[in-house]
Amino acid sequence: HSTTVAGVANTWGYGAMTNSFNDIRNSKTMIIMGGNPAEAHPIAMQHLLEGKELNKANLIVIDPRFTRTAAHATEYVRFRSGTDIALLWGMLWHIFENGWEDKEFIAQRVYGMDEVRKEVEKYTPEEVEQITGVPGDQVKRVAELFATQKPSTMIWCMGQTHHTVGTANTRASCILCLATGNVGKPGTGANIFRGHDNVQGATDIGLDVVTLPFYYGLTEGAWKHWSRVWEIPYEDLLSQFDSKEAMETPGIPLTRWFDSVSLPKDKIGQRDSMRAMFIQGHASNSIARIPESMKGLTGLELLVIADPHPTTWASLAVEAGRQDNTYLLPVCTQFETSGSRVASNRAIQWGEQIVKPSFEQKDDYQVIYLLSKKLGLADKMFKKIAVEGDRPVPEEVLREMNRGSWSTGYCGQSPERLKAHMKNQHKFDLVTMRAPKDDPEVGGDYYGLPWPCWGKPEIRHPGTANLYSTGLHVMDGGSPFRARFGVERNGKTLLAEGSYTQGSELTDGYPEFTMA
After folding, report:
1. Is the N or the C terminus of the chain less surrounded, counting Cβ atoms within 10 Å?
2. Three-class SS string for 89-148?
């Protein structure tokens, strides 16, 4: 889903689901394009079916395969795999041709739609049918439903993202929402079904090759920000790298990790080839090029797999012929440990330990701590985190996240507030996900305090259930778009003049910013 993060963030500010599974119940038209929640997200599917049956909503499934989800659709659209953008542009052709776009929303909150309109003109019904295989009258029918029977939501999973043009696919989906004004209100938005516990949290915390935690980049300013949070001098962090250039160079993405083993050094954009790989919580079957992965596994000097089960990495290693320097570390399941986890809708839950670990299993906290101790990094790495025995305290880990993530709004979800939510789950409304304002423990909160949850926990920001809702005060969960590319381009402002949250002192939005 990293393609989703890039495409969505560069459209309107945050690379995450705009609304929530529960909020889909408010939709009048739902398009699922690139997902099969009936099998992959059964809880989310329950909300979709409730919306269809109780709200009499249109459920449109666009997929090359007739899936179990498609069996529930009010309209099924079969199209050629890989032609997502052409189909979306074809829908926009009908929307613009018939005047179904939300002109007021575009004028007030959208930059660059005129350029999109010019590009869309090329995608006539005849051209789109030739590319996608979808008849023109069906494309028109779906476009009209999405644009006129609102609120409408666009839903996707990895059917859109696992392409070489995955980021462009997700941007096109967002543009469809913008053109029809389906952002920032209940029942609208880009509802992206992420992987299960805890993919959204892994993204937020920066488990990729291009960012530090909470979407800070790899620039000197970003490193200095985290050096302040960790109370480690920037120079000490820099000393861990061969050079400043290496410190600020993105790593090898997971999809082509094997290239860093098998290709010549001058072809991989790194200072050296990969020699060791430590795998924690990942299965190899998400990588398309399995034969190349097997070749890469034979070239590693060290392979460590930390997982509750012998995963496909282990089976591939055996099949590839690895016999030495291969270790399988038994790690606890989520039921044998505790800590915070983030759902697709940016909401955070606190998980408690249900059963004790079996035999000599360690949980993920212990694995990281013991590894850092062997490497001589534990004193610095856990300087601000309490450690009991060989296990970092999960509550302290979350507090460190809170201290460093003010630009994302990951700062108001203290362990105490999250535990109160788990204790009082029955008080939250099923659809709005909000607790009664007069409740003494969770009054006015949205369940899980979905980020952004601004300020310190003492401020008691309720969280943001639906992103980009200007009809609410920021302290009530409202938020505008965030300009990602400065405040002006070609002499035109990128800030939405006249579009602002209730009670805001700024009347034209605000730019993305980081602390230098």
Report:
1. C
2. HHHHHHHHHCCCCCHHHHHHHCCCHHHHHHHHCCCCHHHHHHHHCCCHHHHHHHHHHHHH
Q: How far is CA 492 from the centre of its chain?
A: 30
- Give the domain ranges of the chain: 2-192, 199-387
Phi, psi dihedral angles at 69 (to 5 degrees): -70, -45
- In order of 158, 171, 173, the CA distances from 166 in angstroms are 9, 9, 11
- Residues contacting 125, CB < 8 A, separation 6+: 90, 93, 94, 136, 139, 140
Q: Which strand (E) or helix (H) includes residue 190?
A: strand 190-192
d(CA 304, CA 327): 5
Written out in words, the top-level CATH class of the domain with range 2-192 is alpha beta
416 vs 166, which has greater pLDDT? 416
- Please give the single-letter amino acid code of residue 472: L
For the stretch 443-474, pLDDT in tens is 999 999 999 999 999 999 999 999 999 999 99
CB 499 within 8 A of CB 508: yes
- Other residues' Cβ atoms within 10 Å of the Cβ of residue 509: 24
Report d(CA 268, CA 303) in Å as an integer.
20
Q: Are strands 482-483 and 510-511 parallel, antiparallel or unpaired?
A: parallel
Angle at CA of residue 423, ends 417 and 428, nearest 5°: 85
The kind and range of the H/E element at 278 are strand 276-280
Work out the end-to-end distance of the chain between its first and last CA atoms, rounded to an integer number of angstroms: 29
Instruction: Pick the closest to residue 450 from 477, 423, 425, 475 (CA basis).
Output: 477
C-alpha 60/C-alpha 72 separation (Å) is 9
Domain boundaries 199-387, CATH class: alpha beta
Tokens of 337: 């440990």
CA distance 230 to 380: 8
Question: What digits encode the pLDDT tens for the residues 231-271?
Answer: 999 999 999 999 999 999 999 988 889 999 999 988 888 88
Here the tokens at position 69 are: 């989800």
0.90 surpassed by pTM: yes
The answer to whether the CB of 158 falls within 8 A of the CB of 287 is no
CB 11 within 8 A of CB 36: no
Beta pairing partners, 489: 492
Task: Please provide the average confidence, as pLDDT, over all residues in the chain.
Answer: 93
Rg (CA), the chain: 24
